[in-house]
Amino acid sequence: MSGFKDVVGHKDIIQYILIHRIKHFLFVLILIKAFGAQNIFNIFTVICGGVLGLMISVQTYYLGFKGLIILMSYIMPHYILYYTAICYAMKKRLLHSGSDENIKNLISFCIIFAFGVILECSFMTFFLKIFHQYMVT
Are residues 76 and 116 in contact, defined by beta-carbon separation less than 8 angstroms? Predict the structure, then answer.
């Protein structure tokens, strides 16, 4: 039986998550420019709420209450930071060009976003180990 390190490395996960989160962020920026921040925020809130409900149902079906705890501990830390970053961007109107204050706010947003990516990478590695055990056995 090969170890988890042979399957996927921490560096691979960081690269994968960082690339995908940046692509998602750029996609959302384009949508916000086209349709307005509040409209996109409302649409994504509905979509993410539906997906979360589906994930909760599936995890509860397969693992019971333990699955619910695993799911919540997996998504909470980094998604709270992502949500905070999005709300911060909307509140500070980061999409409007201009001043030095906007540059400082953008840097603050990037720091919050980076912490979210780091947390997601840490938790992703931990939970991939758990799911790898279930797949191997």
Answer: no
Return left, alpha or beta for 93; rule: phi > 0 is left, psi -120 to 50 is alpha, else beta.
left
pTM assigned to the model: 0.60
List of the chain residues with pLDDT < 50: 1-5
* Burial of 4 per CB tally in 10 Å (0-12, 13-18, 19+): middle
Q: Which long-range contacts (CB under 8 A, 24 or more apart) does 18-22 make?
A: 18/117, 21/113, 21/116, 21/117, 21/120
